[in-house]
Amino acid sequence: MDSFSVLYSSTYRTGLLSGFQRLRLENRMCDVVLEAGGVSFPCHRALLASSSEYFWALFGETTAERSAGSVSLPLLTAEGMDALLDFLYSGWLSVSSSSLSAVLQAARYLQVAPAVAICERFMVDGLNAENCCCYANLAEHYTLTNVLEASHQTISAEMKMLVQTNRDDLLQLNFRSLMQILDMMEIPGVQEVELVKLALDWLDENGPLPLVNSNLLLSRLRFGLVSASDIVSLNHRALATPLIRGQLTQALAYHTTGSAQPISQSRLSTLRAFSNRVLLVGGASSGEGPERQMLAFDPRCKKFWFLKSRLPLRLRDYSVCSVGGFLFVMGGQKVRDGDEDGLKSDTSPASNQVWRFDPRFDSWQQVASMLERRSKFSCCVMDDIIYATGGRHTGLDTEARASVASVEFYDLAIGAWRRGASMPRPLYGHASAVLNDCIYVSGGRSAHTPTVNAGNYNSNQDGPREGSKEVFCWKLQSRVWEKRTSMSIGRFSHRLATAHGYIYALLGMYEPFCDIERYDPQADQWTRLRPVPIGSFNYGMVSLPSGKLLLFGGRRWSDGQEVILKSVLEYDTMKDCWKEVCELPRPLMGTECSLLPLMD
């Protein structure tokens, strides 16, 4: 049998279309005329039927148009028809923002799927604050799912600007799009009261709507993020339905729950913001003492920004944690604003004050104080209860500093602190972490030391003595402290973090090595891991839900001098590797970190 080959010419199809286009432009061999918008378009019936499902059906064997000399398309514009015929005859689609609607209408009506896909790509690639509302309406009308989703994301991201300068575009938004946007978890930079006003104005502009639609729209709002005074002042007929009045009543009740607000969270009171932003609380950028600033960090885009709100007090050696989207700042030593260079901060008495920060309203509130004054202590959260362990106590009427073994916990339901089971020995400068309904405490010191005159914020009167290697565990079920296998390195003022079922111990002060180690609670065993590339202490640390650890700033010794760092290090617990991901806006040490939903 003779062999043979099948070869393909990539230029033949292009040449074939070019030939048809030439015939159309010269009005040769055309066998049908399409009429749209008062303009006639001579065409070739065979090419149209082979390119469009609509024309294939129109020119079928049993239709009246099969042999008609002209076909009228009254729903299409001349502009859209011309652009689409150019595409059918050449493969090139001419589309702009001004012609998009007409072209898309023709492509969808005539069932030319490739042209619709090109319009979709044009819209997604060109989305911005100026056209996102218009594109959302087009996408909704022509069922362009990808464009609709992308438009909603753009509207959400640009909402802050839209409500200020493009409000009319928002008021012309279709019902489904507005409902989807009000359902979004993130609408950066926009207060909920602005969204409430927008929804009510939209109802005035587009109503009256059926009751069910009005309820569907307004039930997407989060009235718990609106202040009680603003809720009371709302006055609109759409708010009078039983469903919406019930949500308003629930929101007002939420505002009266006091200390229980963090454990009373619902969708109505959940901030529309990324829940895992990092809040860096306080710290210092020089030896002049602690500052009151709060710095936010988005680990997704590596972006920093300063919050307008500031700490109520200048503090050092305090602890922070978050519950239900609220930040708690506890204890520490107060530094008066009038103290130059942070002097005498080490001789000030330890505080038992507790402050709560609400990012929903950018406000601080002093809540129930701890039973004991504590600095250099550790806190952690388990089952929405805050536990404060150990620390150092400087009395009001004495300069003696003593470490304590006491433990207390804050019951948010009643807003009061209660005593818990004391640790086996007094500790300060230790670290704690929660894993599997257990609190683990490691390292620290238990010495009782007299106070000496303080220097600046960098000074440490404890001296370079080794920290403890011991590890203790408190089980929620048995409520007793048990000893666990000790760390291989004695640590003081270090950090503990949990990730993927393990506990990680990071650097403390005056450690001879930069090693970190991992604890396996099942095997009760510690394993040394890759050292930190930049050996430092007095840094901020947070554990992300992904299992990665972030270290912010700190201080280290370099050429006999103490240097404050700007570095942000990331540790991948799965790969056991370190990398520097970015830098702080300025050097920072002594900051405390927590994950918190925060507005931009």
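The above is record 1. Record 2 follows with the same two-line structure.
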Amino acid sequence: MDRLKRMRQRDWARVFGFACALGGVGMSLAGYAGADWDGLILLLGALMMLRGAVEGPSPSRVAGLMRAGRLILLMLAFGAVNRAQGGVEGAVAGVLTNPILWAVGLLLLALPLLRRGLGWSAGERVLPEIGFAVIAGIAFWLLHGWLVGTGDLAALWTLVAVAAVVNGGAVLRSGGGWAEQGAAFWATLICVLSQPGAVLWPIALAVLPFAAGFAAWRRRRSSGEGK
């Protein structure tokens, strides 16, 4: 009980991140109607929680804007996946033309601008990250268009994959713990490789050794740096 009382917000975010990653795969294993859609939402939620667990306060307004942009991508992916449960057609177009979502997005972008005491930049590499996100989006669109056709399903898959890669990459670059990085790598691989609406758990099991190996490598590397 005392240990629970001492847990900070970041500790709870870590716990919920792990729980969402495992719960998403568990829902797919349960196999009820819509289980894999719910599981995909939980896996995206895992990336959001893990980001909260490893990121500290924004060091500058630019960093805050970048974090808001990553969160907006997740928000759009959440909304599109939720809409797609009733039919993939128009799911991405629906969220991209939703004025309420964009109002929330503008509010998220305004928060770091209105926060007092922050400088504009602390040496963030903005253009490389934006360029990577754009290139990843084009690459995923071409790949998914080849796999499932250049339609609504490809657009949804591309949005989910880009949101996962951008937010998962933020966890991997953060220098957080090996467990968080391993879980984020696992959730990112599942989101990228799983067609939205298709069964998640076989892919989750297939990529688990890669995520475990990555986590073990990060653990050895952090142990070596600590000596």
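The mean pLDDT is 89.
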